Amino acid sequence: MRDGSAEAPREDGWRASIREYYFRHRAWLLGAPVLLLALVVGRSWLSEQLVPDPRLNRQLEQAQLALRQGRLSEPGGQGARELFESVLAADPDQTQARQGLVDVADAAIADAERALANGQAARARARLALAVALSAPTARVEPLQRRLRDFDAGSGSVAQLVAAAAAPGVDEDVALAQLQRALRIEPANEPALFAREDLLGRRLRRADAALSAGRVEEAQRLVTSVVEADPGHLDLPAIRGRLGETLARRQAERSSTLAAADAHERAGRLDAAARRYSQLLAVDSGDADARAGLVRLAALMAEEAQRQAADFRFAAAEASLARAQRWDPGAAAVQRATERVAQSRAAGGRLRHPVTAADRKRVATALVQSREAIARGELLSPPGTSAWDRLRVASALAPDELAVVAVKGQFARASLACFETALSVNQLRRAQECLDASLLVEAARRDAAADRARLSERWAARAEERLGASDLAAADAAYEAARRLTPRDAGLEALGQRLRRARAASP
Predict the structure, then answer these.
(1) Structural contact between residues 436 and 463, judged by C-beta atoms closer than 8 angstroms
(2) Can you tell me the distance from the alpha carbon of 217 to that of 236, in angstroms, rounded to the nearest whole number?
């Protein structure tokens, strides 16, 4: 007989173990049914996601086959478009079907091009309608739609256009335009193709002859017209090769001539520099560098004419003015120099006679008036009573008098001081006038180029500031002032390009 009291503690220990196991693993025990239910419910969803519907696969295969066979759209629903759309209706996220519709649109555009080339307007119209319905890019569809409209408008008139182009006495450009129109309507029309090839071949032969005769611009125009009309013309590569070699040789010669002109200009040999620039313009009348060079030379020669006239060397002044006018006809600087030379000549006509006591008195008076004008800051204006005009009168009467030389020195020092003061407070127009005044008496001073560069930099900064404020008129004026001072500044060219873009973008 077993002892009941011994079994009771054993049973209590077993129950305690069960409770402990339950509480330790209750999360798993309670979650197991939920997990089992999720597996059962989600089994069908997983199978749908991981295993595609066989019916959709068959439809995709049928759609791809229809696309390869060119059956892009069919009323019975078995065209590539309809099959791809059917797949998307069942599964909107089917990427293969979406790409398939893009491929259908591409195929429709390609087929429309072929149809237009073969004169099949109805087929082209249907294919373009399909491409539009499938949201094909407008940039690809619109050119074909224009060609289709041209075809519709000129249907049946291609033969008349070709005949009109071949009629006696027809201008070559008119004939080419008629042939081009015929080929827009019917790109594969053989009579139009042969006629155009013959016409363009004649142009290329003329271009070859022009190139041999050195008429490069004429040859270039002819070749360009052929490229625009038919870039695949069989005779083009040879003449384009010759033209390219000629242009490269000319560019090398231009660079050499431009460098020589620049060297002459820097050395002060203005006539030699002008001859080089003129050579470049004789080859290419639109050469901007050569034109700018002559403009600079004209301004320098106009300044020289004023200095010569101030010394009453009128023959030399007139010769300098003539060169300046020839290099830059109608330039404002040349016009101003012409006026000052005329004033000096008039003064010289009145004053050129033996120095008398009365003349010496007039010299003294002119020098006093010149000093007073210098003190007032009236260096170059107002005309007739400025310090420079009074000084010229005294110089004409007694150029070698010590008092005259002294006032010239005072004028030069005052001009430079005026320039520095005006520049320090950013009064650029005043600084420009003072710099011009200083150069009238000391054109060859060593720091003249540095002063020009400093003032040019300030004008350029003014142009930048005005450009930023969208004040294009003021920006243009400041830019032109800077360019006149330092026309070869590369930074100014970049600023000029920005100004031109801003003007083009302005309403």
Answers:
(1) no
(2) 17
Does residue 416 contact residue 436 with C-beta atoms inside 8 Å? no
Q: Is the pTM of this model over 0.90?
A: no
DSSP state letters, 131-168: HHHTT--HHHHHHHHHHHHHHHHHTT-HHHHHHHHTST
- Contact between 210 and 224 under an 8 Å Cβ cutoff? The reply is no
Total Cβ atoms within 10 A of residue 275:
14
Within this chain, do residues 115 and 23 fall inside the same structural domain, yes or no?
no
Q: Is residue 147 domain-shared with residue 59, that is, in the same domain?
A: yes
pLDDT in tens, 402-420: 888 888 889 888 999 999 9
Q: Is 89 exposed, middle or buried, given 0-12, 13-18 or 19+ CB atoms closer than 10 A?
A: exposed
Residue 196 lies in a domain: yes
> Do 123 and 80 belong together in one domain?
yes
Maximum CA pair distance of the chain? 172
- Domain assignment present for residue 220? The answer is yes
Provide the residue type at 123 as one letter.
R
| The two structure tokens encoding residue 506 | 């302005």
Judgement on whether residues 112 and 189 belong to the same structural domain of the protein: no
Asked whether the predicted pLDDT for residue 199 surpasses 90, the reply is yes
Rounded CA gap, 464 and 146, in Å? 46
Give the pair of three-digit tokens for residue 471.
């004040």
Q: What is the CA radius of gyration of the chain?
A: 45
Report the alpha-carbon distance of residue 483 to residue 475 in Å, rounded.
12
Domain containing 16 equals 7-41
Q: 219 and 170 share a domain? A: yes
Least trusted range by pLDDT, from 78-87, 116-125, 276-285: 116-125
Give the domain-ending residue among 154, 183, 218.
154
Instruction: Specify the number of domains making up the chain.
Output: 3
Same structural domain for residues 72 and 125?
A: yes
Q: Assess whether 13 and 69 both reside in one domain.
A: no
Residue 108: C-alpha distances to residues 102, 123, 151, 194, 287 (Å):
10, 10, 19, 30, 50
Q: Do 73 and 125 belong to one domain?
A: yes
